[in-house]
């Protein structure tokens, strides 16, 4: 049975977003305010704040130094897998995929999400948290941010059936064209572990994606947590100019990306592989 998110989970997610915005505005090695100061600024309890801080420490964005406080961690090294002129091909992941909406609301974008979507921090966005299931088993949690002006009339049921990119195209005339996505290791916090049915601090994959339409306008910012015990990414590298291009089906599910009509070019093929349960 799928569990609903608690109020504390929603509050922790917003504290996490605030802390990530703080990290992005600082240089590596910069101190961040004390837990007491942050609790007062955000109006949250110490356990709620500490849970979000612990997550960022575990994922390598913050470091704690005994007797000194918390600091922004050194930047991670990024390795490009394909030349900029080519795009990822996104083949099918196995299994029958479905979605369950956990939260659906309209909120202000805030500074961090606003920068990604190129909208004012005060602009309204539609925020959706949904559980992704494969063969009725929880596999991932997705947090979607979409400019509200792009999707008037969007309902929770629209996010549980059909293809969101098809919905954008057919109902709102928005055609997605490209996306930039990062993938890195993480661990599950208490709420994520409860929702996807794994122990707390289990290995997981963190996807972050910014999707743009044919005009270059950002239309969607998503971050997702995929369980690491059942999901893996395999990259097949085409090193020559004669690699065959395999056409993609609109009904396929792609790692960290809902089914859609993104470009199908050659250079790197990234495959989502769902592992059988033990």
From TrEMBL:
<dbReference type="GO" id="GO:0003700">
    <property type="term" value="F:DNA-binding transcription factor activity"/>
</dbReference>
<protein>
    <submittedName>
        <fullName>GntR family transcriptional regulator</fullName>
    </submittedName>
</protein>
<dbReference type="InterPro" id="IPR011663">
    <property type="entry name" value="UTRA"/>
</dbReference>
<dbReference type="InterPro" id="IPR050679">
    <property type="entry name" value="Bact_HTH_transcr_reg"/>
</dbReference>
<keyword id="KW-0805">Transcription regulation</keyword>
<dbReference type="InterPro" id="IPR036388">
    <property type="entry name" value="WH-like_DNA-bd_sf"/>
</dbReference>
<feature type="domain" description="HTH gntR-type">
    <location>
        <begin position="5"/>
        <end position="75"/>
    </location>
</feature>
<keyword id="KW-0238">DNA-binding</keyword>
<dbReference type="InterPro" id="IPR036390">
    <property type="entry name" value="WH_DNA-bd_sf"/>
</dbReference>
<dbReference type="GO" id="GO:0003677">
    <property type="term" value="F:DNA binding"/>
</dbReference>
<keyword id="KW-0804">Transcription</keyword>
<dbReference type="GO" id="GO:0045892">
    <property type="term" value="P:negative regulation of DNA-templated transcription"/>
</dbReference>
<dbReference type="Pfam" id="PF07702">
    <property type="entry name" value="UTRA"/>
</dbReference>
<dbReference type="InterPro" id="IPR000524">
    <property type="entry name" value="Tscrpt_reg_HTH_GntR"/>
</dbReference>
<dbReference type="Pfam" id="PF00392">
    <property type="entry name" value="GntR"/>
</dbReference>
<dbReference type="InterPro" id="IPR028978">
    <property type="entry name" value="Chorismate_lyase_/UTRA_dom_sf"/>
</dbReference>
């Amino acid at each position: 049975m799928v569990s609903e998110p608690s109020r504390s989970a929603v509050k922790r997610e917003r504290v996490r977003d605030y802390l990530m915005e703080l990290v992005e505005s600082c240089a590596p090695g910069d101190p961040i305010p004390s837990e007491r100061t942050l609790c007062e600024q955000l109006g949250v309890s110490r356990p709620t704040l500490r849970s979000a801080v612990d997550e960022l420490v575990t994922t390598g964005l913050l470091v704690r130094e005994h007797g000194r406080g918390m600091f922004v961690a050194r930047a991670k090294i990024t390795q490009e897998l394909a030349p900029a002129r080519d795009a990822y091909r996104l083949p099918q992941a196995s299994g029958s995929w479905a979605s369950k909406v956990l939260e659906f609301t309209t909120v202000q974008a805030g500074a961090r999400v606003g920068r990604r979507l190129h909208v004012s921090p005060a602009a309204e966005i539609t925020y959706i948290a949904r559980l992704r299931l494969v063969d009725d088993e929880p596999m991932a949690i997705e947090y979607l941010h979409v400019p509200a002006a792009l999707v008037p009339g969007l309902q929770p049921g629209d996010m549980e059936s059909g293809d969101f990119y098809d919905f954008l195209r057919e109902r709102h005339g928005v055609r997605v064209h490209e996306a930039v996505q990062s993938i890195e290791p993480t661990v599950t916090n208490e709420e994520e572990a409860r929702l996807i049915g794994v122990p707390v601090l289990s290995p997981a994959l963190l996807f972050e994606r910014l999707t743009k339409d044919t005009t270059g306008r950002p239309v969607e910012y998503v971050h997702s947590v995929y369980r690491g015990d059942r999901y893996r990414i395999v990259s097949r590298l085409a090193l020559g100019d004669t690699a065959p291009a395999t056409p993609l089906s609109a009904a396929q599910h792609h790692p960290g990306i809902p089914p859609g009509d993104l470009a199908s070019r050659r250079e790197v093929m990234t495959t989502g592989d769902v592992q059988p349960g033990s």
